[in-house]
Design a protein that fits this description.
Strand order of the largest sheet of chain B: 6-7-8-3-9-10
Helix content of chain A: 55-70%
Bound molecules: adenosine-5'-diphosphate, magnesium ion
CATH topology of chain B: Rossmann fold
Largest sheet of chain B: 6 strands, mixed
Strand content of chain B: 25-35%
Structural class of chain A: alpha+beta
Number of domains of chain B: 1
Largest sheet of chain A: 6 strands, mixed, barrel
Radius of gyration of chain A: 32 Å
Strand content of chain A: 15-25%
Oligomer: heterodimer
CATH architecture of chain B: 3-Layer(aba) Sandwich
Number of helices of chain A: 15
Distance between the termini of chain A: 29 Å
Strand order of the largest sheet of chain A: 2-3-8-5-7-6
Number of helices of chain B: 7
Largest interface: A-B, 31 and 35 residues
Helix content of chain B: 25-40%
Order of helices and strands of chain B: EEEHEEHEHHHEHEHEE
Order of helices and strands of chain A: HHEHHEEHEEHEEHEHEHEHHHHHH
Shape of chain A: elongated
Number of strands of chain A: 10
CATH class of chain B: Alpha Beta
Structural class of chain B: alpha/beta
Radius of gyration of chain B: 18 Å
CATH superfamily of chain B: P-loop containing nucleotide triphosphate hydrolases
Chain lengths: 406, 240
């Protein structure tokens, strides 16, 4: 006997060890439940993180626009409104954008701020003629918002005077390559010729066919926005805070602030409902684990009635009996969760081996988070103790006379 | 706390016990008066179903009487809650049962130390030394590390007696302690009880069917149908 261990712990452990088969079976049962929960959680969070990452690879977390901007490419009618805008509306710029940018820099949770002058244009090369979105950027600032440097597939991200970076889709449409010249024309009939310095692939066909990056200055003059910007892109450290921060910025600056959560509302709703349904599944797995533990302990209390009676006759209190059985539940939950985490880890390793893209690279990266294992261990121990409540109360209230006569 | 020297170890006045309620209520004990002094070695005999075990469970504070008063070492027990009864039971009373004596998940030594462990909450070296001495005294020095079910019936009963003595109780209650043993083992176990009684002056109340063993006690109390019908002092070595 370990001298630091209280009586209740000693008795709980001995009882579990004595009922070896029962204890082992229920620990395996708890383990399988925990393994499914951990595996499912890891899979889901890996999947969702991957989806969010893909979605946000070509989007800012928050976009600031002038106050009454009407036509934004957001609805299925985007193409139409783009054309209407081109004919009817002059691009609006953000007033005093430098001051706003300076103020934003003081806010917490902001990772990068990138002012931009953008608008519709046409690009012409030889016979080919394409509608595009012209984006004037500061490449260093813009890279803080969208990981464009990582997405360059040819050339480099360089937008000096007369230089442009285009997507691979547009390059194909125009038959253009690095070093070739393209001509950009806007609604106001402003025209400039650019040399292609880089090709990017942002993983989105529309974006790859439409976006043309040039220097902020070139875009400003082509779009008749001299000195101004049409939007400010913001990226955050904690993307879940996007909506809150967007409302705050909108209230403070009077600008329109769109968070990625709002612009991707359907996507976010899908993610949320996926999480809700997985929580429901987790809850029911937890419930069946709890019932398993409870039923094993109920049987154990009946089997041990005499021993309970003898212990009571020797001066063991109701509280001591209660704790002995609560502990058995907790211990079974704890060891079950360790087993379950080990199983989940094995499943995840197998998953990594099997779930691969056509080129052999992992489909997406998932791992067993030590925090998740700790939560599983704590949660399963707690579930075990709760499941043991009823049997433990029975043990405590057992009439020692009946138990001994047994 | 009452002073055990000036009070009888056990005093019962008008103890009644009924089971059931209303129509099905039946009274098993009809007003028992009984007094046991320190160091008495008493047998409780009577036909099966006469209420001996019921009475022993009441005295052992495992059950509550339906009426009457019960004093242990001069302390009235009627007002105690379950915690108080449990504590008094643990400190003052030792049990030896006929069946299911020991807890099989523990060794002989651990079984003997169990009342001390229950009372103190954590194991310590001293309690195992004491348990070891008790096992030496009941002649099981070689069996300390055996699990309970690796012992013979007589050996198990010796362990149970050692365990009953662990808390140095004032009163040991034994319900047919030799009922399950062959004659030879029964004699040994009985002799052991007697020896403890002589050496430690512990009070014993022993239920037995065996008239031969009862005759070796100082006092024979006979029950029939829930009443004490005879109470004879066999030897004259008793305190007055
Ligand atoms: N829990 C109980 N409910 C109802 N009757 C009981 C209960 N326990 C004992 N009895 C009855 O009380 C009587 C005395 O039993 P008991 O004390 O065990 O007798 P003994 O030990 O002398 O053989 C018996 O008739 C028995 O049926
Ligand atoms: Mg009986």
């Amino acid at each position: 006997m370990k001298s630091w261990m209280p009586f209740e712990w000693i008795a709980a452990i001995r009882f579990l060890r004595e009922g070896r088969m029962q204890s082992l079976l229920i620990i395996v049962g708890v383990g399988v439940g925990v393994a499914v929960i951990v595996f499912m959680s890891a899979l889901l969070s890996g999947l969702q993180a991957n989806l969010v990452k893909r979605t946000l690879s070509s989007q800012a977390h928050i976009v600031l626009l002038p106050p009454e901007e009407i036509a934004r490419p957001q609805s299925p009618a985007a193409g139409i409104s783009l054309r209407l805008q081109k004919q009817a509306q002059r691009l609006r710029s953000i007033d005093q954008w430098q001051q706003i940018q300076a103020r934003l820099e003081g806010l917490p949770n902001i990772a990068a701020i990138s002012p931009m002058a953008s608008g519709p244009a046409f690009v012409v090369r030889g016979d080919a003629n394409k509608a595009i979105t012209l984006l004037g950027i500061d490449p260093v600032r813009y890279s803080g918002v969208i990981a464009l440097p990582e997405r360059m597939v040819a050339g480099q991200l360089r937008v000096g005077a007369g230089e442009a970076v285009i997507g691979i889709e547009l390059a194909k449409d125009l038959g253009a390559d690095i070093g070739d010249k393209i001509r950009v024309t806007t609604a106001g009939d402003a025209t400039e010729t650019f040399t292609v310095t880089g090709l990017f692939d942002l993983g989105n066909k529309g974006v790859n066919a439409r976006n043309v990056y040039v220097s902020l200055r070139s875009a400003q003059s082509l779009l008749d926005l001299v000195g101004g910007v049409s939007s400010i892109d913001i990226s955050l450290h904690d993307i879940d805070e996007a909506e809150r921060l967007a409302s705050k910025i909108a209230a403070e600056t009077g600008l329109t602030a769109d968070s990625w959560i709002k612009t991707n509302a359907q996507f976010v709703t899908a993610l949320t409902s996926q999480r809700v349904s997985s929580n429901v599944i987790r809850f029911f797995i937890g419930l069946s684990v709890a019932f398993g533990i409870a039923s094993v302990l109920v049987v154990s209390v009946i089997q041990r009635a005499r021993e309970i009676g003898i212990l009571r006759a020797m001066g063991a209190s109701q509280g001591q009996m209660l704790r002995i059985f609560l502990l058995q539940g907790g211990i079974v939950g704890f060891f079950g969760s360790l087993l379950g985490s080990g199983l989940a880890w094995t499943f995840l390793m197998l998953w990594r081996l099997m779930a691969r893209n056509a080129d052999g690279s992992p489909m997406f990266v998932i791992g067993v988070d030590p925090g998740l294992v700790a939560i599983a261990a704590g949660g399963a121990s707690l579930v075990g103790i709760l499941a043991a409540l009823l049997p433990a109360r029975r043990a405590a209230r057992l009439d020692p006379v009946v138990a001994i006569r047994g | 706390m009452a002073d055990p020297v000036t009070h009888p170890v056990l005093q019962l006045t008008g103890i009644r016990k009924s089971y059931g309620s209303g129509e099905t209520e039946s009274e098993i004990l009809h007003g028992i008066d009984l007094r046991l002094e320190r160091g008495e070695f008493a047998a409780l005999i009577g036909p099966s179903g006469s209420g001996k075990s019921t009475l022993l469970n009441l005295i052992g504070l495992l059950d509550r009487p339906s009426g009457g008063q019960l004093f242990i070492d001069g302390q009235e027990t009627g007002q105690l809650d379950d915690t108080g009864l449990t504590r008094l039971r643990g400190q003052r009373i030792g049990f030896v049962f006929q069946h299911h004596h020991l807890i099989p998940a523990f060794t002989a030594l651990e079984n003997v130390a169990m009342p001390l462990l229950v009372a103190r909450g954590r194991p310590d070296a001293e309690m195992f030394e004491q348990a070891g001495r008790l096992l030496d005294q009941v002649g099981l020095a070689e069996r300390k590390q055996n699990l309970a079910n690796q012992l013979s019936g007589g050996q198990q009963q010796r362990v149970a007696i050692a365990r009953a003595l662990a808390m140095s109780p004032s009163l040991v209650l034994a319900d047919e302690p030799t009922g399950n043993l062959d004659t030879h083992s029964a004699d040994d176990v009985f002799a052991l009880l007697r020896e403890v009684n002589t050496r430690l002056n512990t009070t014993f109340l022993i239920v037995t069917h065996d008239r031969r063993l009862a005759a070796r006690c100082d006092r024979i109390i006979e029950m029939v149908d829930g009443d004490i019908v005879a109470d004879d002092r066999v030897h004259d070595k008793l305190p007055a």
